[in-house]
């Protein structure tokens, strides 16, 4: 039953009243009291209400326990956060992206595989390196002998050799080598014509594969596969960069959403505290009871707990953002405020209808970095499979050798004979090598066949995941857009309802607990609107991530080649 104003007066001043048939909750008629006393009581009541800010006119004073937004247009947008406190960390979204791309630890780990892939490309290019060989050797030998021709019991021999060689492989698989050999022999034997004897020769050797490892495709197979693997690693790095930027934006939105929800909790707590103050003043005037104060104070305590939880949610959201940005050197208690959050600006792009799913899928299969990386992996596996098939063939090499020789008692004449090409030797032949079981080549071929099948399955898996992600995020965008519209209308209705019920409360037709409930209903509606706006922003980020356009949509030029680790500079 509703209480009338007279019920809060001291018992000795309460006039006897009797209920009139059909009267409303506040419709009591006094009997046995002059009309002047009633007028005085009404004047005192209005004076007490005016002290507490509950005016009788329809306008909503700033001090009354009513909603901050009293019109539909003001209530249709989310509650914005108050000005950040002193000492807060203010930054732009682009600053956050740059910080995360440069210092995020997970992204730094993702930069290692492209660097390893680039090093592997360098390794594979080594097969075309020119190899220079130098050999210098001195040998002395002392051996006993019983040969009478030597005329000595001890045979002493020695030689000095110097060899200079150069080898290289051509892209066609041909290996050529040039070697210049010089030798000086000496002995104590008496039957040697040249002592010391100098010999020199120049040897040119050419080996061309006819079967295994023959042709540019087989020779460059491992190099081409390594280059494709490097491109795939860079695409995965780009994917990780997109994921990092998306995570940063989600974290920024979450920080702003929690700050706004905290502000909603602050507003509804202030309403409860003003209601406590209002009833306390009325009690001093003898117009309210202790029960009214306790009822409002208990609700205020519950709202203080809600405010503490909302403040903790802000800190936890800021901790997550700080971890993504690797801002370990900043004050952990400082407020983090992004000054250009799309959520703060109420970006009209968020309200636009997303493109059709088929169009988004076509774009996803062109721009998703993980899909492009999977295609490069398949290209590398195709190259390695053809190379493995080539390795099953027998080794058949065409070998040709041309050699020019010189021999004299001094080095100069020996070299002259080589230059004049007076004494030459040549040879042409075929070198055939066949593995009877060929286990290694056959096993390697089967392994590459399975690796190609795995690469194909990975592509299909990414295609299925892309279809699911695009469809899911597309649906979430449309759902969240509708949620925002519904939540905006709910806030408008809650504001209107609270405004109406405040009028009834001023007239004494609404219990204290009902007013508190309507205040909480408005706060809940505002919180749902805050969450709907945050979810809408995040769903757009998820949709852009699903189609792989997070970086270009934000104007971020992420050069994967420039982001690789400097391995030589690392300790």
Average pLDDT level: 82
Described by the principal axes of the CA atoms, the overall outline is: elongated
Strand line-up across the major sheet: 4-5-6-7-9-10
Radius of gyration: 45 Å
Strand content: 15-25%
User: Which sheet architecture does the biggest sheet show?
Assistant: 6 strands, antiparallel
In the CATH hierarchy, the third-tier topology of the largest domain is known as Outer membrane efflux proteins (OEP)
Architecture per CATH nomenclature, i.e. the level-2 architecture of the largest domain: Up-down Bundle
How many domains, as an integer? 3
Question: How much helix is in the residues?
Answer: 40-55%
Sketch the topology as an H/E string, one letter per element: EEHHEHHHEEEEHHHEHHHEHEHHH
Looking at the chains present, what oligomeric state does this protein adopt?
single chain
Helix count from the secondary structure assignment: 15
Structural class: alpha+beta
Uncertain parts: 1-35, 37-78, 563-571
Beta strand count: 10
The N- to C-terminal Cα distance equals: 80 Å
CATH homologous superfamily classification of the largest domain: Outer membrane efflux proteins (OEP)
Give the gist of this structure.
This protein has 571 residues and is an alpha+beta fold.
Task: Please tell me about this protein's structure.
This protein has 571 residues and is of the alpha+beta class. It folds into 3 domains: 5-68, no CATH class; 75-115 and 224-379 and 449-553, Up-down Bundle (Outer membrane efflux proteins (OEP)), CATH 1.20.1600; 123-218 and 394-436. The chain contains 15 helices and 10 strands. It has helices at 35-52, 72-75, 93-103, 105-110, 112-125, 216-219, 221-284, 290-325, 342-345, 357-367, 369-390, 411-420, 439-506, 512-547, 550-553, and strands at 17-19, 28-30, 89-91, 131-144, 154-169, 175-187, 197-209, 336-338, 395-408, 423-433. The strands form 3 sheets. Strands 4-5-6-7-9-10 form a 6-stranded antiparallel sheet. Helix 3 crosses helix 7 and helix 5 packs antiparallel against helix 7. It is elongated and about 145 Å long.
């Amino acid at each position: 039953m509703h209480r009338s104003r007279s019920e809060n007066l001291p018992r000795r001043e309460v006039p006897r009243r009797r209920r009139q048939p059909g009267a409303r909750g506040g419709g009591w008629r006094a009997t046995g009291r002059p009309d002047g006393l009633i007028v005085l009581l009404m004047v005192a009541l209005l004076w007490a209400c005016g002290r507490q800010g509950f005016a009788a006119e329809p306008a909503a004073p700033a001090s009354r326990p009513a909603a901050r937004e009293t019109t539909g247009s003001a209530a249709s947008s989310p509650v914005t956060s108050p000005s950040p406190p002193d000492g807060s960390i203010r930054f732009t979204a682009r600053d956050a992206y740059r910080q995360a791309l440069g210092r995020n630890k997970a992204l730094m780990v993702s930069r290692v595989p492209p660097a390893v892939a680039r090093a592997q490309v360098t390794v594979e290019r080594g097969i075309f390196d020119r190899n220079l060989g130098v050999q210098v050797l001195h040998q002395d030998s002392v051996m006993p002998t019983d040969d009478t021709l030597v005329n000595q019991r001890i045979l002493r021999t020695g030689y000095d050799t110097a060899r200079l060689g150069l080898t290289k492989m051509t892209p066609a698989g041909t290996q050529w080598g040039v070697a210049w050999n010089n030798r000086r022999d000496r002995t104590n034997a008496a039957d040697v014509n040249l002592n010391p004897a100098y010999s020199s020769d120049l040897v040119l050797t050419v080996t061309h594969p006819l079967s295994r490892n023959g042709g540019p495709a087989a020779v460059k197979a491992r190099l081409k596969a390594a280059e494709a693997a490097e491109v795939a690693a860079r695409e995965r790095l780009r994917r990780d960069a997109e994921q990092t930027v998306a995570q940063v934006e989600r974290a920024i939105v979450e920080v702003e959403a929690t700050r706004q929800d905290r502000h909603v909790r602050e507003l509804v707590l202030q309403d409860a505290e003003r209601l406590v103050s209002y009833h306390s003043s009325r009690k001093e005037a003898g117009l309210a009871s202790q029960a009214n104060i306790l009822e409002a104070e208990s609700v205020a305590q519950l709202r203080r707990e809600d405010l503490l939880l909302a403040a903790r949610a802000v800190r936890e959201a800021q901790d997550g953002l700080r971890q993504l940005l690797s801002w370990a050197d900043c004050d952990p208690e400082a407020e983090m405020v992004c000054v250009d959050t799309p959520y703060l600006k109420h970006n009209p792009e968020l309200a636009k209808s997303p493109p059709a799913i088929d169009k988004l899928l076509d774009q996803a299969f062109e721009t998703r970095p993980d899909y492009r990386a999977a295609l490069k992996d398949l290209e590398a596996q195709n190259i390695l499979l053809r190379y493995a098939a080539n390795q099953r063939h027998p080794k058949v090499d065409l070998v040709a050798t041309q050699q020019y020789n010189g021999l004299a008692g001094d080095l100069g004449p020996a070299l002259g004979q080589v230059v004049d090409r007076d004494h030459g030797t040549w040879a042409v032949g075929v070198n055939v090598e066949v593995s009877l079981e060929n286990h290694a080549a056959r096993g390697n071929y089967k392994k590459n066949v399975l690796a190609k099948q795995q690469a194909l399955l990975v592509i299909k898996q990414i295609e299925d995941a892309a279809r699911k992600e695009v469809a899911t995020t597309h649906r979430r965008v449309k759902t969240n857009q509708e949620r925002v519209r519904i939540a905006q209308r709910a806030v408008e209705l809650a504001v209107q309802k609270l405004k109406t019920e405040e009028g009834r409360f001023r007239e004494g037709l609404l219990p204290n607990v009902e007013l508190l409930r309507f205040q909480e209903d408005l706060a809940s509606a505002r919180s749902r609107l805050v969450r709907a706006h945050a979810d809408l922003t995040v769903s757009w980020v998820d949709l852009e991530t699903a189609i792989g356009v997070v970086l270009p949509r934000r104007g971020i030029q992420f050069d994967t080649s420039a982001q690789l680790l400097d391995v030589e500079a690392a300790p």
